Amino acid sequence: MDVRVALVSGANRGIGADIARHLYQQGWQLSLGMRTPSRPAWDDDGRCHLFAYDATEGQEPAWVQEAHARFGRIDALVPCAGLMIPKSVIDAEEDELEAMMAVNVMAPRRLAKAAWEPLKASGRGRILLPGSLSGKRVKSADSGTYALTKHATVALAHALRQAGWEHGIRATAINPGFVNTDMARSITHYPPDQMTDPTAIAEAVGLLINLPNTSSVAEFNVNCVLEPMY
Description:
alpha/beta; 7 strands; 7 helices
């Protein structure tokens, strides 16, 4: 079987780092987008391609071009770079909302657009968008502005699934609640050891990214607490 290639942003920390490591262990070739590129300790054979990537700078076409030149194909995108500013829709400033939209929505859309032709050529292109349960409901006032952007992220996953279906492209919104990362620990007093482990999210991505075209999962919701719907 040909070795498939995935682009993973936000790969230097949190969920992105765990997803990158898990896909590497599954045998994927990886191009890792990081603000400050640093080869992960687990990449002991230097297999990963590193790209200096800032989700606010419109670098997606350059990243795709460089990764495609290195590997000759692109089969999956996992844009994990994210931004959360915990403010209500009343307290947030316009530039803060724009910053979250830029990182959480516009950057993944640009990446998908830039990689669209290689994903089509793959015949089984995959886009795994880390959304959030905040993209399904608004749980608190201070999560309201973030939820606006994550609702858009979930909608983007559905829009990409619709646009790419006939070309074998499948898109999934990964929607966790609290995950034990720096971001979650900074906004809640919920015990870290009771949050979802980022390794579990990585394993879910590993499952979803390998499903055949006939087994599409539009949304994958996962929670560490009991809620009426999630």
